């Protein structure tokens, strides 16, 4: 499977009263997968700090399909689904799979880049655009101008 940016075992702290992975644990592992992917593509925290920008989220939607239980192993696939060149808004899809390949959850997020000094949305600096070209695209990816 391609574009896997997180793999790990479900731990006790990620389990809810129903004995399956709690809702916020899915969001946590997807955020880690997204961070891993951005770092691998060149968008390290140090690079963001250098330009005084950072990613922010406006929406996070979780869709559940199958349960994940304690001690199971999961992997998270991350792909870009939309990108707006004029204002640097983005959307990602994350898919959480069990080790046997069963799709258990899809997490969709919408966000943008934030200028950390002005506290306003901003575009990526021109010299960061090549990193964006490396980000994996979903088959239904759409670029918006």
Write the layout of secondary structure elements.
Blueprint: E1 4-9, H1 23-41, H2 45-51, E2 53-64, E3 73-84, E4 89-98, E5 103-115, E6 120-122, H3 129-134, E7 137-144
Parallel strand pairs: 3-7
Antiparallel strand pairs: 1-3, 2-5, 3-4, 4-5, 5-6
The overall average pLDDT, rounded, is: 95
Strand content: 35-45%
Number of domains: 1
How many separate helices?
3
What does this structure look like?
It is built from three helices and seven strands, in the order E-H-H-E-E-E-E-E-H-E. With 145 residues, the chain is an alpha+beta fold. It has one domain: Hotdog Thioesterase (Thiol Ester Dehydrase, Chain A, Roll). Strands 1, 2, 3, 4, 5, 6 and 7 form a seven-stranded mixed beta sheet that branches. Strand 4 and strand 5 (103-115) form a beta hairpin. The model has no long low-confidence stretch (mean pLDDT 95).
Summarize the structure.
By secondary structure, the chain is an alpha+beta fold. It is 22% helix and 44% strand.
Features:
7-stranded mixed β-sheet, 7 strands, Thiol Ester Dehydrase, Chain A, 145 residues, elongated
């Amino acid at each position: 499977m391609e574009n896997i940016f997180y793999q790990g075992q479900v731990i006790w702290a990620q389990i809810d009263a129903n004995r399956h992975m709690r809702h916020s644990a899915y969001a946590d592992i997807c955020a880690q997968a997204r961070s891993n992917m951005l770092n691998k593509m060149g968008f390290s925290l140090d690079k963001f700090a250098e330009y005084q920008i950072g990613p922010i989220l406006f929406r996070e939607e979780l869709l559940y399909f199958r349960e994940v239980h304690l001690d199971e192993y999961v992997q998270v696939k991350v792909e870009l689904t939309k990108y707006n060149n004029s204002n640097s808004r983005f959307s990602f899809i994350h898919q959480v799979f069990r080790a046997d390949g069963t799709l258990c959850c899809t997490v969709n997020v919408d966000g943008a880049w934030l200028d950390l000094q002005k506290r306003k949305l901003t575009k990526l600096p021109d010299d960061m655009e090549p990193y964006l070209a490396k980000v994996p695209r979903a088959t239904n990816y759409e670029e918006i101008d």
